[in-house]
Amino acid sequence: MGTRRLLGLVAGISVWSWLAFGGLLAQSAEVPTTEANRTIELSFTAQKEHSDPFNTLELDVTFTPPSGKTIRIPAFWAGGSAWRARYSSSEAGEHHYVTSCTDAGDKGLHEKSGSVSVRPYTGKNPLFQHGPLRVAADHRHLEHQDGTPFFWLGDTWWMGLCERLKWPAEFATLAADRTKKGFNVVQIVAGLYPDMPAFDPRGQNEAGFPWEKEYTRIRPEYFDKADDRLNYLVDQGIVPCIVMAWGYHQPWLGTEKMKKHVRYVMARYGSLPVVWCMAGEVNLPYYLEKGFPLGGEKQAAAWKDVIKYGRAINGQGRLITVHPTGLEPLSGRLLYQEQDLLDFDFLQTGHGRREVLPPTIRAFRASLAAVPPMPVLNSEVCYEALLGTIPADIPRLMFWTNMLTGAAGHTYGANGIWQLNRQDKAYGASPHGGNYGTIPWNESMNLPGSEQLGMGKKFLESTPWNRLQPHNDWASWGAEKNGTGGWGDWIWYPEGDPTKNAPEEARYFRKTFDISPQAKVARATLRASADDSFTLYLNGKSLGSHGNWSTGRDFPAIEDLLRSGKNVIAVRAENSPGPKGANPAGLSCRLVLEFEDGKTTVVSSDDSWRTQQRERPDWQNVDFSDESWSQAKVVARFGEGPWGSRVGVDDEYFVPYSAGIPGELRVVYVPAARPILLHHLKVGAHYKASYFDPVTGKSQELGDLPPDSQGNASVSPPRGCREDWVLLVKDDR
Fold it and tell me: Which of 379, 388, 528, 639 is positioned for an S-S bond with 346, CB 3.0–4.6 A?
């Protein structure tokens, strides 16, 4: 007699408990039972000897639930003569099954029949309460099987099944942190990882690799260990978005072996409330291929055949998507324009700072305009702390602009987690020789961006978020106060001609200024730009960094950092590698102080600033002596030199983003601490407004918001706001 085992829960941890059906129990009419949407596992044992069962046999199980609709799922080889099938259903009642094996002569596998019983779920896990995910009726959002809206907030654990994230303690620690912050999806690869060659030791788990060398057969031992982790995520209410393999593994395995890999993963995990991402960077060749990153067309075409196969065997109907590389069109569905291949669209729109926003929004709009309509979300963009250069405001910018452009959700990524750096051992070199930074996963876990995106999700969920529609014409930039604009001269360390070429190094700058004890600063704004990047300090406190000279960055509402008497602006500016013979460097700054008596003082970059080639201890502080530092060189007046007048000019993408429901409410994300002008308000109507701080998660009431005779209303950022802000406007009728 065979055995069956049932997936259950003990003390909140997923375990396998055995139920034997043989001997006296076989005489009982009792049918193995599970709860709705929870896995039940059936075990089968081959009666014939098979020298290579994984490669020579296929076993399917067809279930017939009470509704009468048949569901055919693949079973998986579990080692030796053992085969298993995993099944779940939301439909209560008795479900009958029968097996079908490619070797019809093996009576232990072929035409085995029986029943399982499904009763209503009684627990509190939302994935079991509401069921797996599906596309909502509007084809723009995701929802659970019972119609409950699902706001996708994903985290990126590409290598989360390897042993560098220790099981169970470290895995549970990271999962608990993400659950607490509101994440409900983890993007995780099924063993064939990115950023490494085949059979790299960094890809092992406690049982080794997912495949034998030369890809002779799959290794169930690897996936036995993966079971623990994936079941644990589900037990915490987190949807595993399982990436079958990184795209460049396809040429190594070949199409038929990759289909076997997909079949195996679907058989083991299709009963869980998962989402299938059929490939990661499906159109990116291996890093050392000639012409990299171009030349992935043949690989992408081969994956198309694999995706079709996966859809054909996806008996439990889990959603299917694919992850593209960061090359145009930046979209899975625009890469594969064949209808019915994907259920929803994954974008990957690049890594960087503000320069990533235009291609991101263009990709969203192109995907949302494509036919047939489908949900769209950004599955990879601007990992926080990548290369130590992406601060939290950039992932925050991407989250809010993407959501108010029409996204069905968003995926966050943090450097140190996706590749699982450890404190005792960093991930190490990529195949191309570099690395993306050494911050360990447990430090990266506490980077501010993850909490800020969780707070953003919570705020949007307090609105009818799945009914919000983009309205780009509902808000625009408002008028700035006189004197707050403008820039200083371009300055640099006195070495050669920095307008043409400068060393690829950092230089350090200071400017001291005094504020009279009798003067009271009402408002202070500091703006800066550097070719290529800078970190800015005021009186020893870091205000932030920026890496795009053409946009620059404003630091408003800094008046509380000023003091009576001596103050100092300190800047670390760095010239990054560029074209040989044409790599200019420069720094431009401007501080505007507005006093309560109406007077204004401006401190701009000029030749009175001090500069040094090397960093010195405490150089950012007020009491540091810069008398030995050199006088800065004015290399160009603002508007001249290689930079021209292009700095700080607003583009069509760095603007307020609006979405809402006409006649009910509107949500406006403002990416800078600047005033805005609302449009298309109903004259004579009553509106109530409130602020939301996307950095702290705090809200404050603004009160009545009366439109003028043109249906417009001017709104300033909340007092003390230094970065982005969110406005919620409700029709008070």
Answer: 379
